[in-house]
Amino acid sequence: MPLFGNTFSPKKTPPRKSASLSSLHTLDRSTREIELGLEYGPPVMNIGGQSWKFEEGQWITESGGNASGRELQRLKKRNVQLEEENNLLKLKIEVLMDMLTETTVEYHLMEKEVEDIKTQHRRKK
Questions:
Q1: Residues 50-102: pLDDT tens digits?
Q2: What's the half-sphere exposure (Cβ side, CA atoms, 13 Å) at 22?
Q3: How far apart are CA 21 and CA 3, in angstroms?
Q4: Which of 21, 37, 94, 95 has the fewest CB atoms within 10 Å around its CB?
């Protein structure tokens, strides 16, 4: 039982009206097609006389260095692949070195045991 009588029950707030910052929703379909075009495509912009196009998450120059930009992306991707392969090979070398160390230790232990057995055998004679 509550100390002061009735329990706390807040009133439900009314839902907010969403206000769009864009005025495009007020335009009819034909005006939107004129403004935006039928196919939107990737965004393109001109900065400093160079045309830039947004493709696959990166901005690529279209004028002047497009082929070299694509080649640069291809080389970066190949570099990442080679780094991953290099890391894998380093890991394999480390595992092989551990195996070699373990085998060498076992060999030395067995060699010592053989020497101990030989010395015990010589003492008995």
A1: 788 888 888 887 765 545 667 778 889 999 999 999 999 999 999 999 999 99
A2: 4
A3: 49
A4: 21
Joined together, the tokens standing for residue 113 give 């045991």
Q: What is the pTM of this model?
A: 0.42
Write the single-letter amino acid at 19. Answer: A
Measured between alpha carbons, how far is 38 from 97 in angstroms, rounded to an integer?
Answer: 62
Q: Which residues, in sequence order, are CB contacts of 84 under 8 Å at separation 6+?
A: none
The kind and range of the H/E element at 86 are helix 66-124
Angle (nearest 5°) at CA 43 between 38 and 45: 120
